[in-house]
Structures are given as structure tokens and as C-alpha cells.
């Protein structure tokens, strides 16, 4: 028998490597981070209590106390770097923050409590500490240390405040600090610095404004407000030019920056300097429009959110400039004209946003005309009818522009233009109704007839005649929407005659109302059937 082959040792099956955890588990978070922060706080309190005990017993003089604080703060910064090089990065960041806090407090105590050096020296020292923390944050590529520098930098004016007005020093310092922090955010992509810097700057600006502003400081204050606006507008603009988009949250910052500046301008210029405020708002509109035009162009078929955002702000400021300078009927007229221009622009550029903005403006015009009455002294030749006429002309221009460029009217835009057509007829009927009502209300008709009854009769006749015109014109042009609008208005007139005129009109008014309605209805019925038979072979326009 052949010898059996020797048995080969069986290798153990390989075990799958355990995946390494990618995030912080609860144990690491508590032991590595929370305990670090709590320990630093406890150490800071222990040192503070010891120093207070030593100071209360005069173990150390005033100069020695400040010197100890400066030495300890500087030593902690050096020690944090030693820890970082040995791999304790997160622990070293806490030590560095502790060192910065000790330095700030030591400088503050040396100026405020012990008067060892003047305010300018304390201010310069805190600026040096802030700059050093920024340099450390850059060297370690650590956003958390940059936040420590931000907090310390913005606390400096509060710590060194004397309650006196030092606008130039304060705002210059804020501008330099904002510029440095925004530069960090730009090159290191530390997005949180932008928003925190903006909020802190607003707190200081409005805090100073409420306490010290007067008209004599208008020029300086407006200049600093403009500088702050440009600083916080620059970073999103530069970023959008490079990437074609905005980082998360930058869109909100753009909106907040624009509207706080508008609020500041209004607080300084309204109402005594309305022309200056109007020009400033128009300048804001031009600025945002220029940014929208220079933003990176989107690819074919894509929409640039950057362009829409800045173009929307430009449009908003133009719209706000109208009521700032104008009043009453002029606001309504200007918004109507602006709406027509936006419709025309949307048809030329195929930008839907412009059409949406026009819809908002036309809605505002309708609300103002229907619910904010304008005084009218004479028949037709008055400001109210002029405002209605301009609004109707603006809507008619928009409809004509859409008719001349049918290829630019997208399917989703057709309801908008259909509503514009309805709005034009509503405005026309409303305007004529107001004029007729006032005409018969201001003067008593002949033969001693009652003016109130004459007003009701005038409305019934006017609605009936206008509805007849719509129906006949719609039949002639084979326009279904016009015919339906005429039928609805005629139905309203019929309802008024039977439900109101029959009950409240007397004698000749009731006779005239029903006679006119009957004649018109018969005439409309005859002409409608006749026109329909003649136009049977013509294609109808769909709504």
C-alpha cells in the first residue's frame, strides 16, 4: 500500500479587520473633551482664588499681580505649543485659550483696577494678544483658536470702555478686526467667523448709535456704516466669483448685511433727508445689480442662485426707493410701471424670477387701488382716475408684449398673463364705477330725482354695457376668456338688478333699470348668436 501523504497544518481562517470608529463615541467625548474643558475651568478658578487670597493678604503688590498674570498667560501659550508637538492637540487648544483669557484679564486689571498704565497701552496690549492668537490659530490651522481670538478681540472695547464717545477709535478697531477675521474665513474656509463677526459688529454699532449719535456725526457714521457693509459684502462676492455659488449660510449673511445697512441709512436720513436716502437706496440697488451681472455665469440649463439673490436684492431696493421719495398715487403709478418693465424684461431674458417679481408688484398695485382710496374732486380729471389709467396701461403693455413674443411665453406663464387680462378688466370696471358713483353723488339729477337711486342705476347700466362690450369683442376676436369675463360681469349685473334694484329702486329708476337690462340682454343674445354663426369656421383662442 502506498504511504499516506503527510497531513498539512490547516491555517486559521483570517478574521475580518474591525472597522475603526470614524466619529467620537460618548466615552471619548466625555473623557477627552468635556473633562478637558471642566478641568481648565476648575484650574482657572483655583488659580484665581489663590491669587485673590494672596492679594488680600498683601503677599504680592499690584505690579507683581499684573506681572504674574502676564507671565502665566504667556507661559500657558508656550506650554500649549509644547503639548501640541507631543500629540495632545485638543488639550493644547484648551490651554492656549486659557492663556489668552489670563492675558486679557491681566491687561484689563492693570488699566482699570490698578491704573498702572493708560488705556491706550492696555488697548494696544489686547490688540497684540488678539493678533498673537490669530497667528497661533493660523499656524495650527485651528478654527477653535480663531474663535477664541474673535471673542477676545470683541471683548476688548467692552473691557476698556470708559462710557465716553470714542467713535473713530472704536469703529476703526472693529473694521480692522473684521477685515482680519474675514481674511481668515476666506483663506481657511472658517465660515463661522463671518456670522459671529457680523453679529458682534452690529451689537457695537447700534449700541453706540443709541447712546451717542446726533446729526453732527452723520458723515462719519454713514462712512463707517458703508465700510462695514462693504467688508461683509466682499467675502461672499469674492467667493461667488471664484466658485459660482455661495457657501452654506452665506446667502443669509448677504441678506442680513444688505438690510441692516438699509436700516442704518433710514435711521440716519429719514425723514429730513429723503432725497439722500432715495439716492443711497438706488445706489444699493445698482451695487447689487452690478454684482449679479459680474457673478460667474451658470452652465447651460442651470440657474445661478448667486445672480438671483443679488438681482432680487437690487429689485427690492428699487421698489423700496419709490415709497421713500414718492407718496400716495405716485407710489401706485411707479410700481405699475416697474411691473410692466419687469414683464418686458422677463420676456426678453427668459428669466422667470422677473415675472414673479412683476406679479408681486401688480398685486401691490391692485391692493392699493382697491383698498387705499385716492381723493377725486372732478369727473375723470382727477388723481384717482389717473392712477387707475396708468395701472391699466401698464397691464395692457404687458399683455401686448406677451402677444408679440408668443415663443417667450412658457406654458407655466400662461396663467399669469390670463390673470393680467382679468385684472385689466377688473381695474377698468372699478375705475369707471367709482367715477359714475361720484358723478351722480355730487350733483342732484334733473327733475328732482334722488341722487342715491341714480347712483345705483348708473352702476347697473355701466356694468351691463361693459359686459356687453366684452362679450361682443370676445366673439369678434374668437377670444373665449373675454367672452367668459363678459358673461360673468353680465351675470353680476343681472343679480344686482333682480336682487337689489327690484327691492330698493323706486318708480322711474326701477323701470329704467329693468328696461335697459332687458333690451341689452336681447341685443346681446341676438348679436352673440349672429356673430357665432359668422365666426363658426374661425379657430378659437384657448384660455
Counting structural domains, the number is: 4
Low-confidence regions: 7-23
Specify the helix fraction band: over 70%
User: If you compute it from the alpha carbons, what radius of gyration comes out, rounded to the nearest whole angstrom?
Assistant: 38 Å
Distance, first to last CA: 101 Å
Number of distinct helices: 18
Q: Write down the overall geometry.
A: elongated
Main sheet specs? none
Helix/strand/pairing category: mainly alpha
Mean pLDDT: 80
Q: What series of H and E elements makes up the topology?
A: HHHHHHHHHHHHHHHHHH
Strand content bin = under 5%
> Count the strands?
0
Note the topology.
Layout: H1 26-56, H2 62-85, H3 89-113, H4 119-140, H5 143-159, H6 167-188, H7 192-212, H8 218-243, H9 250-269, H10 274-294, H11 305-325, H12 329-349, H13 352-371, H14 383-404, H15 414-442, H16 451-476, H17 480-504, H18 507-534
Helix pairs in contact: 1-3, 2-3, 3-4, 3-5, 4-5, 5-6, 5-7, 6-7, 6-8, 7-9, 8-9, 9-10, 10-11, 12-13, 12-14, 13-14, 13-15, 14-15, 15-16, 16-17, 16-18, 17-18
Amino acid at each position: 500500500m502506498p504511504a499516506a501523504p503527510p497531513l498539512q497544518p490547516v491555517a486559521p481562517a483570517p478574521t475580518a479587520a474591525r472597522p475603526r470608529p470614524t466619529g467620537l463615541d460618548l466615552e471619548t467625548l466625555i473623557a477627552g473633551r468635556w473633562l478637558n474643558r471642566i478641568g481648565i475651568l476648575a484650574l482657572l478658578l483655583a488659580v484665581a482664588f489663590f491669587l485673590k487670597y494672596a492679594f488680600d493678604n498683601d503677599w504680592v503688590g499690584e505690579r507683581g499681580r499684573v506681572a504674574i498674570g502676564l507671565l502665566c498667560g504667556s507661559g500657558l501659550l508656550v506650554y500649549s505649543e509644547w503639548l501640541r508637538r507631543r500629540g495632545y492637540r485638543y488639550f493644547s487648544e484648551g490651554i492656549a485659550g486659557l492663556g489668552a483669557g489670563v492675558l486679557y484679564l491681566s491687561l484689563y486689571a492693570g488699566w482699570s483696577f490698578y491704573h498702572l498704565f493708560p488705556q491706550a497701552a492696555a488697548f494696544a496690549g489686547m490688540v497684540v494678544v488678539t493678533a498673537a492668537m490669530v497667528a497661533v490659530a493660523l499656524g495650527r490651522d485651528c478654527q477653535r483658536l480663531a474663535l477664541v481670538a474673535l471673542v477676545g478681540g470683541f471683548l476688548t472695547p467692552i473691557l476698556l470702555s470708559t462710557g465716553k464717545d470714542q467713535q473713530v477709535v472704536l469703529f476703526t478697531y472693529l473694521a480692522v478686526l473684521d477685515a482680519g477675521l474675514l481674511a481668515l474665513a476666506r483663506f481657511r474656509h472658517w465660515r463661522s467667523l463671518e456670522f459671529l463677526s457680523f453679529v458682534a459688529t452690529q451689537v457695537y454699532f447700534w449700541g453706540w448709535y443709541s447712546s451717542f449719535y446726533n446729526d453732527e456725526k452723520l458723515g462719519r457714521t454713514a462712512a463707517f456704516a458703508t465700510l462695514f457693509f462693504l467688508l461683509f459684502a466682499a467675502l461672499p462676492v469674492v467667493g461667488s466669483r471664484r466658485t459660482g455659488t455661495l457657501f452654506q449660510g452665506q446667502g443669509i449673511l448677504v441678506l442680513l448685511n444688505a438690510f441692516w445697512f438699509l436700516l442704518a441709512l433710514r435711521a440716519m436720513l429719514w425723514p429730513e433727508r429723503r432725497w439722500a436716502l432715495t439716492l443711497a437706496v438706488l445706489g444699493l440697488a445698482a451695487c447689487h445689480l452690478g454684482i449679479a451681472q459680474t457673478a460667474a455665469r451658470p452652465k447651460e440649463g442651470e440657474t445661478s442662485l448667486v445672480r438671483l439673490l443679488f438681482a432680487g436684492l437690487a429689485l427690492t431696493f428699487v421698489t423700496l426707493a419709490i415709497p421713500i421719495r414718492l407718496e400716495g398715487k405716485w407710489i401706485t403709478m411707479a410700481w405699475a410701471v416697474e411691473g410692466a418693465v419687469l414683464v418686458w424684461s422677463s420676456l426678453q431674458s427668459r428669466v422667470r424670477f422677473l415675472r414673479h417679481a412683476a406679479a408681486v408688484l401688480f398685486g401691490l398695485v391692485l391692493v392699493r387701488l382697491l383698498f387705499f382710496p385716492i381723493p377725486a374732486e372732478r369727473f375723470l380729471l382727477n388723481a384717482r382716475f389717473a392712477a387707475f389709467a396708468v395701472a391699466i396701461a401698464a397691464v395692457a403693455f404687458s399683455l401686448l408684449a406677451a402677444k408679440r413674443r408668443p415663443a417667450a411665453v412658457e406654458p407655466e406663464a400662461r396663467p399669469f398673463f390670463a390673470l393680467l387680462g382679468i385684472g385689466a378688466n377688473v381695474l377698468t370696471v372699478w375705475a369707471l364705477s367709482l367715477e359714475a358713483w361720484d358723478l351722480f353723488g355730487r350733483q342732484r339729477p334733473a327733475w328732482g330725482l334722488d341722487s342715491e337711486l341714480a347712483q345705483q342705476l348708473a352702476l347697473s347700466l355701466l356694468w351691463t354695457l361693459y359686459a356687453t362690450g366684452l362679450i361682443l369683442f370676445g366673439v369678434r376676436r374668437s377670444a373665449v376668456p373675454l367672452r367668459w369675463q363678459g358673461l360673468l360681469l353680465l351675470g353680476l349685473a343681472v343679480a344686482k338688478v333682480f336682487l337689489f334694484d327690484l327691492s330698493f329702486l323706486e318708480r322711474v329708476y326701477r323701470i329704467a333699470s329693468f328696461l335697459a337690462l332687458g333690451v341689452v340682454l336681447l341685443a346681446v343674445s341676438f348679436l352673440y348668436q349672429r356673430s357665432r354663426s359668422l365666426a363658426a369656421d374661425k379657430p378659437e383662442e384657448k384660455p
